[in-house]
Amino acid sequence: MIRIENIHKSFDGKPVLRGISGTFEKGEPNLIIGSSGTGKSVLLKCIVGLIEPDEGHVYFDDKEFTNSNRDTKTEIRRQIGMLFQGGALFDSKTVEQNVMFPLDVLTKMPKAEKLDRVNFCLERVGLAGQNHKMPSEISGGMKKRVGIARAIVNNSSYLFCDEPNSGLDPQTSILIDELILEITEEYNITTIVVTHDMNSVLGIGDKIMFLYKGEKLWEGNKNEIMTSGIKEFDDFVFANKVMRKLREI
Ligand SMILES: Nc1ncnc2c1ncn2[C@@H]1O[C@H](COP(=O)(O)OP(=O)(O)OP(=O)(O)O)[C@@H](O)[C@H]1O
Fold first, then answer.
1. Which one in 39, 56, 154, 191 has a CA-CA gap of 20 to 30 Å to 161?
2. Cβ contacts of residue 64 below 8 Å, gap of 6+?
């Protein structure tokens, strides 16, 4: 579980996050949604420590992260897996080398054990036997799968996905969402997914936080999105034609 308390962040005097609090539970994907520029990525970066918030606290399973010493931060960071926008694979490394990378950097595991773990993760994401392909030889959806395998290879307790569906067709997007959901449930991971994809919201949105201009305006699940009664949230949800049609039914 991850808990955030009163997170504030400004850049050059311009507030981007204005006191966001909330809880992200284990074993289910937690979605952060909102329009472009509303602060989703900055919030994610504040949670993982890539950006220092001006105010507020982040707790990983009740261990404070924000004001902790370097050792505690390192220990928590070791348990974090990240799936970046676009996959962010190393182009000059094979699929196997990409997935093994966190084990090379973070562990002293013997090579054979690392390879077993890499193969287990590749199989889990449906890429068994693709070890020696280069990123340039695989599709966008496969790259995301490699990214997911790399994010969980170190037995991560926390998984962060920034726009996991960007650049994918709708069918592949659904498969990637389902994979994230399955892995989250199976390994009881605390997963946070940043997205503005309404298909993801309807597919895996059992816990959703809606940000608007740096504030949390709504929280709920996919069954409650039609009845929030909040204009800014409705404007976001029903900007999508399919959602407008659904409302009419
Ligand atoms: N390092 C930075 N320095 C200055 N401003 C920044 C920095 N990072 C983000 N911002 C600003 O913070 C605001 C929120 O950006 P953020 O990337 O969090 O939006 P977002 O909701 O993730 O948008 P998108 O859906 O388009 O990715 C934007 O106005 C952006 O320009």
1. 56
2. 57, 58, 72
pLDDT exceeds 90 at position 238: no
Q: State whether the beta carbon of 34 lies less than 6 angstroms from ligand 1.
A: yes
Distance CA 151, CA 177 (A): 15
Mean pLDDT value across residues 5-16: 96
| Rounded mean pLDDT, 208-219 | 96
Q: What residue owns the CA closest to ligand 1's atom 17?
A: 41
Q: What is the average pLDDT across 52-70?
A: 91
CA–centroid distance, 40 to ligand 1, in Å, is: 8
Q: What is the average per-residue pLDDT within 176-204?
A: 91
The pTM assigned to this predicted structure is: 0.93
11 CB under 6 A from ligand 1? Answer: yes
pLDDT of 240: 78
Question: Look-up: residue for tokens 């709708």?
Answer: 170
d(CA 91, CA 114): 21
Both tokens assigned to 79: 């348990």
Q: Is 104 helix (H, G, I), strand (E, B) or coil?
A: helix
Name the maximum alpha-carbon separation found in the chain: 59
Confidence of residue 85 (pLDDT cuts 50, 70, 90): confident
Q: Are 232 and 217 spatial neighbours (Cβ–Cβ below 8 Å)?
A: yes
pLDDT of residue 197: 87
User: In the structure encoding, which two tokens stand for residue 84, read together?
Assistant: 């970046």
219 in helix, strand or coil?
strand
Cα 39 to ligand 1 centroid, rounded to whole Å: 6
Round to whole Å and give the CA distance between 200 and 40.
Answer: 15
Buried/exposed code over 106-119 (b: 16+ C-beta within 10 A; e: otherwise): eeeeeeeebbebbb
